[in-house]
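Observation: inputs received (chain + heme C).
Thought: call the complex predictor directly.
Action: predict_structure
Action Input:
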Amino acid sequence: MSAGAARRCLLGLLVAAPAAAAAGTADRYPVFTDEGLATGRAIWVENCMTCHGYGIAGAPDPNKAKAWAHRLEKPRETLYDHALNGFFGPDGTMMPARGGNAALSDAEVKRAVDYMAAVARRANDKVRAETDQPPNTNP
Ligand code: HEC
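Observation:
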């Protein structure tokens, strides 16, 4: 292989790798049959998983029961408000308004929140079933 071809090949790998990684990460998040949650998942994978799927900047992963137990106790309206307008948590971590995508409508952000809450509830139910007691909410 010529040096030029080797470089092109390497470039191809660099471009392809993040896309493949994102696809692999999305597989960890459940697909629900409910239409609203299916839409919410698509919005979430596109806009929110960048942080919430990797714990970037302290973003809570909805698959982690402990990270979400206390958030599920908040009224849904509060979670919507924090996702729409941004939120500083007690640990100094910050959720940016609309996940940083101002083009998302209120309805789209709310659907993504509904999806996260459904995933988190599933993770919490799993912990409860396995331990037969409420999940430990300590970090
Ligand atoms: C730049 C990274 C980043 C992106 C992108 C992001 N989030 Fe967050 N999000 C955070 C962080 C960090 C927190 C934790 C804030 C805290 O509790 O301190 C958070 C917390 C939340 C919470 C919990 C708020 C609470 O009251 O506990 C919700 C709901 C949420 N995000 C929804 C979303 C949605 C929906 C999207 C996509 C539209 C999104 N996030 C995209 C970083 C991000």
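Thought: report the result.
Final Answer: The chain has a mean pLDDT of 87. The helical segments are 3-26, 35-47, 49-52, 65-72, 76-85, 106-131.
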